[in-house]
Amino acid sequence: MTGAVQQSMANSQFLDAVLRRRQFITALGLGVAAAPSFNLLSACSSFGTRKPVISLGGPRKRLSADAFEAAPDGVKRGVFGYGGQLIGPTIRVKEGERLNLTVENNLKVPTIVHWHGMHQPGTWKMDGVEGVSGPAIPAGESFTYDFTATPGGTHWYHSHAGVQYSDGLFGPLIVEEEKPIARYDREQILLINDWDHEWADQIWKRLSTQGMGPMGGSGMGAMGGMGGDSGGQAKPHFTKGLDQLLESQWGSPALDWGDVPFLSGLVNGKGRAAGKNTPLEQVLIRDGEVLRLRLINGGATYSLRFQIDNHPLTVIASDGQPMKPVTVDNLVIGVGERYDVLIHGKGSGSHWIRAITGQHKTIKAVLRYGEKAPIEPAPSPETWGPALLLPTQMRSPKPVDLTKGPFREIDMLLEGPAPVYRWSVNGQYYPNTTPIKIGKNEMVRMRLRNPTNMEHPFHIHGHSFYILGGPDELNLIDPPYKDTVNIWPHSDLVVQWKASNPGHWIFHCHVEWHLAGGMASLLHIA
Ligand SMILES: [Cu+2]
């Protein structure tokens, strides 16, 4: 990389998110568009003059998006965050209530807020996706979101402009269920995310001009298809049941577990980078107590295998939908997914809360039996309980009838990376895609085909879908109902949903860099 390119990368990072669309088009034929002149230092060090705002108590809530400096894992950097904090404050509403919230954009770039998990019935223009549900909020201006909070459960909110959210623009959104889904004494949110030490736009710039770096995943393998259109990959690849796929693939060195090097991770905004000694998140528990943990993977890149040493997890819900309870030792949470689990306080001392990537990079927090227990357990080798939550163990609490057609069958072929770092759905690169038109209330059966070496956590907006399973093992009786699902490498997955919510919706991979590289489709329901 030349010095000039480096300089232009630094200068343009803030505006990239805004200009990315144009750059995509230009990049197709002409390489990277000329970077706008923009002074990075003034953007990051003055951090605006307006004060952060957090006013979440009344019926008209307010929250700002701010830029500031933070060192959540001991490494100081410029970050974005809601209400001047990393991670954003928890927004809590009752199911069925109106959420009226004005977002004040204190950034020097446009931003927009997506309410991940909210179905937005009748209010698709409140869904907060740049260029799909509306324009981004210009710098210095504000926008009032107003919608009915549904469904209940554990959700989150995050920027849906460029690659902004992974700089810290996200927080928990808790919608209290109308009817309690379980009995427990207390609850605790664990918002977990992989965390980088530079601005996401810089990472994106590198990926989109150079492809994966020497440290990123098994870049050579993934880039092996350079020059081709990856047409050779487009065969059916489903060979195993989903359970076997998860068990055999998770952690497999043959696959690409993230295209951005893992540096560290945070739990509720606290982490510890290599060589640092920052405090970790502490979860207090009492003997005999039942705790509901609301697990959210708010990362940009990595799915995480989660465990609390010596404490089985009873999974009761995912993506805001109740599940038939199942007790396991650990589970994998894809980017954008949420799981609600119960743990039973039984014992004493301190225990590691672990979330690891497929390559065993670890994010930690601590479960502590009161203030007298050690601040951290003694270091111990990772021991993973044998009971991993398997896809077929995830079931709706009540049977559903999914056999009635007619079905609108839609195939979604996921491919990439094409040079340079572009990811497609059915050969098209978002935002240059032809929207898929779907009639209101059509029953959609979608086959997601992933011949690539990477997992793709797909997230649907405005709806949830039933995850029927692999094409040869459809569960038409009691499949889980979710809004985000990991499509494992070299596998197909079938989902079914009713297009009950008219509007313009995006359906996309939630790996930040894959979405930026084009891996999204638009669904126009009318
Ligand atoms: Cu992806």
Key terms:
6-stranded mixed beta sheet, disordered N terminus, single chain, binds copper (II) ion
Question: Can you offer a commentary on this structure?
Answer:
Helices cover 12% and strands 36% of the residues. The chain contains six helices and 31 strands. It has helices spanning 3-30, 40-45, 200-210, 219-222, 242-249, 512-516; strands spanning 54-55, 60-70, 77-82, 91-94, 98-105, 113-116, 142-148, 153-159, 170-176, 186-195, 264-267, 282-284, 290-297, 304-308, 313-318, 321-328, 330-333, 338-344, 350-356, 362-368, 407-418, 422-425, 436-438, 443-450, 456-460, 465-469, 481-482, 484-487, 491-498, 503-509, 520-525. The strands form six sheets. It has a six-stranded mixed beta sheet, with no helix packed on it. A six-stranded mixed beta sheet has the order 22-21-24-29-26-27. Helix 1 crosses helix 3 (200-210). The N and C termini lie far apart (47 Å). Mean pLDDT is 86; it is low at 1-46 and 213-239. Copper (II) ion binds next to loops.
Low-confidence stretches: 1-46, 213-239
* Sheet of most strands: 6 strands, mixed
> What is the straight-line distance between the termini?
47 Å
Bound molecules: copper (II) ion
Gyration radius over CA: 22 Å
